[in-house]
Write a structure and sequence with these properties.
The protein is an alpha/beta fold and 400 residues long. The protein has two domains: 179 residues, Flavin prenyltransferase-like (Rossmann fold, 3-Layer(aba) Sandwich); 218 residues, 3-Layer(aba) Sandwich (Rossmann fold), CATH 3.40.50. 36% of the residues lie in helices and 24% in strands. The protein is built from 15 helices and 21 strands. The strands form six sheets. Strands 12-11-8-13-16-17-19-20 form an eight-stranded mixed beta sheet, with helices on both faces. A five-stranded parallel beta sheet has the order 2-1-3-4-5, sandwiched between helices. It starts with 5 loop residues before the first strand and ends with a helix. The structure holds cytidine-5'-triphosphate. Cytidine-5'-triphosphate (CTP) binds next to α13 and β16.
């Protein structure tokens, strides 16, 4: 699928640069031509020789290398590609891009290019979560820069959390999705999925039976149409899809924070089964059996993420889609829910036990929009997802 595609790969300075060597191989195997650019920092982690040997191409390193200027000016270098990939994208490179700085070859290429750019950030978790980096991420996303990752996990620095560079195959999947040029290419979409877990104490929690199957299928269908998907998922039993940015959370409050941090987006689809309540003061010690009987749990209401995003004055996605699980009067309840929450569409389904839908592979949905209710025949969750994704693509293209 990448045959003949020209990719300018900027390798920033970070331990994840070693994964870029594998990335070059994977891209080349698929027929892409990779032109590598190595920053000063990148050179500390991988050698120009190994990069150029794998890419089968000269490595560009210096803005003031006059030979390069004569051979191929930096402007031309940045524009002769079909896609600019930055992997790893460091906090420093993101900050330079957000500010429009051009003090070295990598930042100059990124400022001069009129080619689509995808970043695979990699940095320490605190650096990723720092408000400055999150501000830069939002600025770059609003500028139309695509992102893949970062992933969550243990890091070379010994800490744990988001900041790990996406795996090479996930970057390849994002690259392929970009070139698939589906109707959602260039669109950013949040999908929430799975259950939330609300802690009672460090070892116990309140949960629900959502498997995450519908949200996962939806994220895959949106990705296949070319969207950049930010997949905010509770602890689901179904694995998250490849080629999307996975943001794992546990609680409803964390899910809300992750969704707000991922804005702005073109659309947001809320397929998660969010717990309506949390334990008001979860204990930080394990609750013990006592002679006085059972502990009394007090509950607090969780924020309604769908309603919060639907009612944003600033930065509301142009399309907000909610789900409704009903057991009776499906259309009436879901129609009222659409108005109550302020979303554009509700995908309603009948989850009465007789339908076998909850936890099953099929779904029978009714799509509620401002124009009324549309019953869809019973079909697989994958087919439902493709149909919803196609409708989202149509709505966003009608929207401009
Ligand atoms: N939702 C959310 N945040 C919450 C609760 C729900 O974003 N705190 C979203 C869900 O992801 C889903 C929709 O709102 O898109 C479901 O709304 P909800 O009121 O929870 O509906 P039901 O689960 O159908 O419950 P009820 O019938 O009790 O209202």
């Amino acid at each position: 699928m990448l045959r003949g595609k020209r990719i300018l790969l900027i390798i920033g300075g970070g331990i994840a640069a070693y994964k870029s060597l594998d990335l070059i191989r994977r891209l080349s195997e698929r027929g892409a031509t990779v032109t590598p650019v190595l920053t000063r920092g990148g050179e500390q982690f991988v050698t120009p020789l190994s990069v150029s040997a794998l890419a089968g191409s000269k490595v560009y390193r210096d803005l003031f290398d006059l030979t390069d200027e004569a051979e191929m000016g930096h402007i031309q270098l940045s524009r002769s590609a079909d896609l600019v990939l930055v992997a790893p994208a460091t906090a420093d490179l993101m900050a330079k891009m957000a500010q429009g700085l051009a003090g070295d070859l990598a930042s100059t290429l990124l400022l001069a290019t009129d080619t689509p750019v995808i970043l695979a950030p990699a940095m320490n978790v605190r650096m990723w979560e720092h408000p400055a980096t999150q501000r830069n991420r939002a600025t770059l996303a609003a500028d139309g820069i695509g992102f893949v990752g970062p992933d969550d996990g243990s890091m070379a620095c010994g800490e744990f959390g988001p900041g790990r560079m996406a795996e090479p195959m996930a970057i390849v999947a994002a690259t392929e999705a970009h070139f698939a040029a589906g109707p959602l290419a260039g669109k950013r979409i949040i999908v929430t999925s799975g259950p939330t877990h609300e802690p009672i104490d460090p070892v116990r929690y309140i949960a629900n039976r959502s498997s995450g199957a519908q949200g996962t299928a939806l994220a895959s269908a949106l990705r296949d149409l070319g969207a950049e998907v930010i997949f905010v998922t509770g602890p689901a039993s179904v694995a998250a899809p490849d080629g999307v940015t996975v943001v794992p959370v546990e609680t409803a409050l964390q899910m809300k924070d992750a969704v707000m941090a991922a804005l702005p987006t073109d659309a947001a689809v809320f397929a998660a089964a969010v717990a309506d309540w949390r334990v008001a003061s979860a204990s930080d010690r394990k609750l013990k059996k006592t002679r006085d009987g059972m502990p009394a749990l007090e509950f607090a209401e969780n924020p309604d993420i769908l309603a919060t995003v639907s009612r944003l004055d600033n930065g509301r996605p142009s399309l907000v889609v909610g789900f409704a699980a009903e057991t009776d009067d499906v259309v009436a309840h879901a129609t009222a829910k659409r108005l109550r929450k302020g979303c554009d569409w509700i995908v309603a389904n009948d989850v009465s036990p007789a339908t076998g839908i909850m936890g099953g592979t099929e779904n029978a949905v009714t799509l509620i929009t401002e124009n009324g209710a549309e019953d869809w025949p019973r079909m697989s969750k994958a087919d439902v997802s493709e149909k919803i994704a196609a409708r989202i693509a149509k709505a966003l293209s009608d929207d401009g």
